[in-house]
Amino acid sequence: MADLYPEKRSALKWVDTHRQRLSDFHQQIWHYAEPAWREYRSAQAYCDLLRSEGFEVEEGTGQMPTAFLATFGSGRPVIGTYAEYDAVPGNSQQQVPYQAPRAGLHPWAAGHTDPHSALGVAALAGVLGTKAAMERHGLKGTIAIFGEPAEKVCGSKPAHAAKGYYDGYDAFISYHPHPTNTTIWDTHCGSYWSAVFTFECHNPERWVDERLLAGPAHSHSAPRCPGAIDALCLMYTTTKYTKEAMYPHTGTWTLNEFIMTGGQCTSDNLPPRFSQIQYAWRSPTLDIQQRIFDVLEANAKSAAEVTGCEVSVRWVTKTRVGLANHTIADLTYRNLEIVGAPQFDEQAREFGRAIQRNLDIAPMEDPFTDDCQRLVPPKEFEAQVRRQLPPWQANFTSDDYVDYTWHAPTVRLHTSRPSLKPSEPGYQYPAWVRNALGGVSHCIDPGMFVAGKTIAATFVDLLTQPQELERAQAEFKERTGGGVGGNRWVAPLLPQDFLPPVDLRWPEYVQTPRGEEWWIPTPLGSAGL
Length: 529
What we know:
- This protein has about 525 residues and is of the alpha+beta class.
- The chain has 2 domains: about 5-190 and about 320-480, Zn peptidases (Aminopeptidase, 3-Layer(aba) Sandwich), CATH 3.40.630; about 190-320, 2-Layer Sandwich (Alpha-Beta Plaits).
- Helix content is about 35%, strand content about 15%.
- It has helices at about 5-15, 20-30, 40-50, 115-135, 155-160, 225-245, 285-305, 325-340, 345-360, 380-385, 430-435, 440-465, 465-480, and strands spanning about 55-60, 70-75, 80-85, 140-145, 170-180, 180-185, 190-200, 255-260, 275-285, 310-320, 410-415, 510, 515-520.
- It has a 7-stranded mixed β-sheet with strand order 1-2-4-3-5-11-6. It has a 4-stranded antiparallel β-sheet with strand order 8-9-7-10.
- Strand 12 (about 510) and strand 13 form a beta hairpin.
- Helix 1 (about 5-15) packs across helix 4 (about 115-135), helix 1 packs antiparallel against helix 12 (about 440-465) and helix 8 packs across helix 12.
C-alpha cells in the first residue's frame, strides 16, 4: 500500500518481531491485577522495561507513586500516549472457561475487566515500534508514554493535567479495548467527578446539656452522641431519597457510592468517631456534575448536624468532557485499515466454545461477534452511538482520557476486546466471561497487537508527515477558540497544588505473616464460588 512507506514498515515489523515478548509482558501485568492507586509492581515493571529500551523515565509523576512518564528522542513534534494497568476489586478470575477466582486468592480480589493490562501493553508496543523506526531511519521528534494509574476512579489524568504534564505536546493517542474496531468521531466520553465525605465526631460531650452530666450520667448509661456511623448512614439514605431530585434522568447520568471506612470498631457506649463514604458520578455536562455535587454537599452538612459530627470533603477527581478532532481520528482509522481487523485462531474459538458449553449454550462454530472481527468506520460507529442518545447530548459515559483532549489534538482508538455472540437476543454473558477472555493470550492478543501497530503507524505519520499534524492542530485551535487558553478552551478542573488521594484506604493486597492477602478476610461460604 502507498501509505506503508519504509519508516512505517519498520515500526510494524518491530511489533511483529516482538509479539511473544510483549504477550509475555501482558501476562505479567494481567496476573499482578493490582487495583487503583496500588499498582506498585505493574508500574515498576513498565519503568524497568522502558529504561532498558533507552527511555528517560520519571517515576512518581504528579505526586502519584504508581505514575510515570517515559520519553525518547528530542525536539518537535512531541507526541504521547499512555498505559493503564489498574484492575477492579471483586473481579478475580482464572484463565479458564468457567467461573473461578485466581488460585490462592480471595474470591473478591481484583481482576482485569476491560482489560487495562492489554490497554497498557498495546500503547507500549506502539511506542517501542515507533522508537525502532526512529533509530533506523533517523527520525526527529519526541515520543512519550505516560503511566496512568487509577483509571477506574479516573484518578491520574486530571492530576497530571492540572500539574502541567500535558503542556507543550503536539498530539496524543488514547487507546481502549472495546467490542468494536474504530476511532471515535464526535461523541467522546463525558465527565466523571468523585469525592470522599469524611464525618468526624470531635466533641461528643456537646450532645447533651451539661446539667445532665452529673452523677450516673458519666457511666455507660449516659446519653450517647449518634456519631460518625449514623452520619454516614444518614448521608447514604438521604442521598438515595434525593437522587431523583438531583437532575432529570436524561443524559444517562449515574451516581454510585463506596463506604471506605467506618467506626473503627468502637465498643461500649462510646460514639463512633470517624467514617468515610466515597461518591462517584458521571454525566455528559459539567453543569449537571456541579448540580449533583451541590445536593451531595447539602446532604452531608445535614447529616453531620443531626449526628454531632463535622464533615469535610476530599476530592478524588474532576474530569472535563472529551473534545473531538476529526483530522487525527481519520488519520488513525486509515492506519487501522492498513493493519486490518483482529483475527482469532482456532484455539481462541475453542476457548469461546468451551465457555458456551459450560453455560449450557450450544457451542457456535465461530463464537465471537462480527463487530470484534471487522472494522467499523468512525461515522458508522458514531451513528450507532447517537441512536441511543437524546439530540442535545454531546458526550456519553466517562473516562479520564478526556483531559488529554484539551491540551493537544487527541484520537480515541478502539480495537476489539473479544466478545461472544449471545445465544438469543438480549442475552448477556456473566461478567467473569469477559474477565477470563481478557487473560487468555489467544483471545486478547489479536486486538492488542492491532492497536499497538495502529498506534505505531500513526506516531510515524505524525513524525514524518507534518501536514497531517498541522491539519489536526488547526482543527484543535478552531474547536478551542485559539488553542490552549482560547475562549472556548476548558482549563483543568483541579488546582495545580492538588494532592492526589493516594493515602486513602483504597482496596489493596497486603503482606502478613500468612503471606499475601486481599484487604478483607475471606467470608465463610465463599469457597464454592
